[in-house]
Amino acid sequence: VEVQMNGDGSLLQEVALHQADARSANLCETHTYRESHEFIATRFDKPDSHDVQTSLRKLSRLDVREALPKEALAFAGRLELDQSLRDALSAQQLADCLHALAKWDKNDVFHRAGLALSARLANDERVGVLLDAQRVAQCLDALARWDREPVCRAAGERLARRIAAEPRLCDALNRHEVVA
Fold first, then answer.
1. Closest among 99, 176, 77 to 143, alpha carbons compared
2. For the ranges 28-42, 64-78, 123-137, which has the lowest average pLDDT?
């Protein structure tokens, strides 16, 4: 496959869209024109947190029982491939991304994107420290979907160490249900 850079997007965007097209070819397109249009309107020329947040909101609103729009797959593919985008995410955005991706934990693209985000959570101590109780619970829920993956276990262990070291966080978690 030959991919050329043009003024409309980055090489990574083109590759992610091509991969999403190939992976979603077997899916029945059941999303509405509005959903598709909203995702297409989101540009990923640079790791801009507003674009990520907008796409994340749209992703979290999609029905798990329906086929994923190819643009949602492209967004997950971009999260997987673009280290600068993952690094630009705030701790809260990373937790929200993991939470949304875990809804489709059996999808290969979402799985790999979840692993890439889990690696940042496992390797960057600052991320885990900045999460509130609700987002710690969301991360643990998401990580449990991929519990056989070493990077997800490492991220879960980092969060568990934080919970053990901070009684206030542990108390706050009692208000949030963590489903394993």
1. 99
2. 28-42
